[in-house]
Design a protein that fits this description.
Layout (H helix, E strand, L loop, with lengths): L10 H10 L6 H11 L4 E4 L6 H12 L9 E4 L3 H14 L7 E4 L5 H10 L4 E4 L1 H9 L10 E4 L2 H6 L3 H9 L6 E6 L7 H7 L4 E4 L10 E7 L5 H11 L5 E4 L3 H13 L4 E4 L5 H12 L5 E4 L1 H4 L9 E4 L7 H7 L9 E7 L4 H9 L5 E6 L2 E4 L5 H8 L6 H10 L7 H21 L1
Parallel strand pairs: 1-6, 1-7, 2-4, 2-5, 3-4, 5-6, 8-13, 8-14, 9-11, 9-12, 10-11, 12-13
Antiparallel strand pairs: 14-15
Helix pairs in contact: 2-3, 3-4, 6-8, 17-18
């Protein structure tokens, strides 16, 4: 049975879903769709790949009155790439209808967009906050009657400094607005904004069943006392990856690593915040066409970029926000294909690694030997060895034993021995904790 039919969507949506081969909604779609249909404000928290885009697009598209020539739905996205993905998905869903969709992002011809808007307003607006706001200030884009606002990837919107733009957009929309906010995480700094616009929102938190897919080999490679660029070069060239993404934490390091790998003869693409929009678009096209085998990227620049066929993910740095680690590793091992994730680390990264392990992420420790990665010692072997070694009895108790030799009280030695053994057991338990 096609469960999507139970939602009562218009026939053109059912036709589009059938063409896409969609039969059963994902978990987040089952939870979100009925809430939006009933007019609730919604906060959805889920990881990439959970199907959240369709969870809000399907019910919102079904609410649109195509006879009204005005903007009815506004969807903001923090990056051009994410906005473009949403635009393409929406086009698929409205294919058999007269609903119009427009995409407005930076790096495109604004005057051309203004001219088009003067003649016709779309039913659905998808775009980056800055460009949407620009078009509003030019009195070209009219959203004052739109009843629905979606803020996609809200945590990234905050990180990139676009929340003020979104705030201004929301402030120009009707007072009785149905708002939907979707995010991988809900940072504390985002909460005042949510409280300002959302009254009694329904929160749907969908934690991943498996933090790292079982199709991914997740390895930990120590670089202590070694040149990480040399190690990176050996790792990249020993197995001919189909497509490898190398993640770093800063734009400066992205440039440094890209330059160093190019010096060693590799053709490397670099994606970070300082790469102009036109250049980034060209690079993405070349990467999709496999003109590049290696991509060095920062998190904010690369998040949301959907690159097919990533066989290797290499974390040259561990991200400060550990949620990004999951986003990075999740770029490989998709669609049932095997993926390979390698995280470089030094002893100074132990705290971050421990935190990731507490989240349920397991690593296999490896070392580079004779041109290949081989499993090596457990990173925590020293701790475990210390856990199992004989503990020195409490010095005070030792003294009591010596004194006991001079006493004639019956059973005294036996009691002290029991106390010593008891304290040793307590110490072992504490050490294991």
């Amino acid at each position: 049975m096609n469960k999507f039919l139970t939602y009562g969507f218009p026939e053109f949506i059912n036709q589009a879903l059938e063409e896409l081969g969609f039969k059963q909604p994902t978990t987040i779609q089952e939870k979100i769709i009925p809430l939006i249909q009933s007019g609730k404000n919604v906060i959805g928290q889920s990881q990439t790949g959970s199907g959240k885009s369709h969870s809000f697009l399907l019910p919102l598209i079904s609410k649109i009155d195509s006879q009204l020539s005005q903007v009815q739905v506004v969807i903001t996205s923090p990056s051009r790439e994410l906005a473009n993905q949403l635009y393409k998905i929406t086009q698929q869903l409205v294919k058999y209808s007269s609903i119009s969709v427009s995409q407005f992002v930076g790096g495109t011809d604004k005057q051309r967009q203004i001219n088009k808007l003067h003649s016709c307003q779309p039913h659905i607006v998808i775009g980056t906050p800055g460009r949407i706001l620009d078009l509003m200030k030019e009195h070209a884009l009219h959203i004052q009657h739109a009843q629905y606002l979606v803020i996609d990837e809200a945590d990234m919107t905050l990180d990139l400094g676009f929340l003020n733009d979104v705030d201004e957009i929301a402030s120009r929309m009707p007072k009785y607005l149905q708002m939907m906010v979707f995010s991988a995480t809900i940072p504390q700094k985002l909460k005042p904004f949510l409280k300002k616009y959302m009254e009694n929102p329904e929160e749907v938190i969908l934690l991943p069943e498996t933090v790292v897919a079982d199709t991914i080999t997740n390895q930990l490679l120590s670089t202590k006392g070694q040149d990480e660029i040399d190690i990176l070069y050996h790792v990249l060239t020993m197995g001919e990856p189909y497509l490898a993404m190398i993640f770093v934490n800063t734009k400066q390091k992205a440039e440094k690593v890209t330059y160093a790998l190019r010096e060693r003869g590799l053709k490397v693409a670099s994606i970070h915040g300082d790469v102009p929009a036109r250049e980034r678009k060209r690079l993405m096209r070349q990467i999709q066409q496999l003109e590049y085998q290696y991509v060095v990227a920062t998190d904010l620049a690369a998040r949301g970029i959907d690159i097919n066929g990533v066989s290797h993910v290499i974390n040259l740095d561990i991200p400060a926000d550990l949620d990004f680690f999951i986003h990075r590793v999740g770029r490989t091992g998709r669609n049932g294909l095997h993926g390979h994730a390698i995280t470089f680390y030094t002893p100074s990264d132990d705290t971050a690694i421990n935190a990731l392990e507490k989240r349920g992420i397991s690593f296999k420790a490896v070392a580079l030997k004779n041109g290949e990665l081989v499993e090596t010692f457990d990173r925590k072997r020293r701790e475990k060895r210390e856990d199992t070694k004989t503990f020195e009895p409490d010095a005070r108790i030792k003294g009591m034993v010596k004194k006991a030799k001079k006493t004639v009280k019956p059973g005294y030695k036996r009691k002290l021995k029991t106390e010593i053994e008891k304290r040793e057991r307590q110490k072992r338990r504490q050490a294991k904790k």
